[in-house]
Amino acid sequence: MQNNVEIPQLLKDEAGLIQRARKGDPEAVGSIYAHYQQDVFTYIFYRVSDQDCAEDLTAEVFVRMITKLPNYIEQGHPILAWLYTIARNLVIDYYRTSKERQSMPLEESLIAGESGHPVNETEDHLAQDCLAKAMLELTEEQRQVILLKIVEDREIAEVSTILGRNERAIRSLQHRALAALHRAMQKERCYER
Question: pTM here?
Fold first, then answer.
């Protein structure tokens, strides 16, 4: 999801919004949730590949945000960077506590024939599964830059602000991440149409 707000203005507005939220203003908390819920969900979904799980973990991110807001220390980064940190930790905990990774279930829509052609749907699932496996081969920073820049279609300046690195470093990280992703997909022998 591309945000059409300039970074400096966003940071300025966020500071006031965070202060109001810290004081218990439900509208401020609601605004933070409304603005960032989809970004956090996308970030988590691309790590767990399960919509229900991603929705649960996204809700937990915001519960933790509310709980930890009184101790939040502004460091010049957008609050989204903090939310991603909470999300990343929850995903780590999720994988740490799950005994075994389950294979992706066959979608009910495929069984019922409600969606497109079953062969196309199966090909899409195989490609997504391959990409998810290949993404696990990347470092956390590489995954973050791919999700922020490519999946969420954010500008380099915004990615730079979120990750707290300069634009040149982000471009370099993106280049290395794409090369590593390509190698990982070759290693996985990804399904190709």
Answer: 0.64
**Residue 20 contacts residue 28 (beta carbons within 8 Å):** yes
Provide the CA 55 distance to its chain's centre, in angstroms: 12
* Joined tokens for residue 59: 């809700």
CB 87 within 8 A of CB 39: no
With beta carbons less than 8 A apart as the criterion, state whether 147 and 91 touch.
no
Buried b / exposed e across 64-84, counting CB within 10 Å, b at 16+? ebeeebeeeeeeebbbbebbb
The CA-based angle 57-59-63, given to 5 degrees, is 110
The CA distance from 61 to 58, in Å, is 5
pLDDT tens for residues 4-60?
Answer: 434 434 445 788 888 898 888 889 888 999 999 999 998 898 888 888 999 999 999
pLDDT tens string 130-161: 777 777 788 888 888 888 888 788 899 888 88
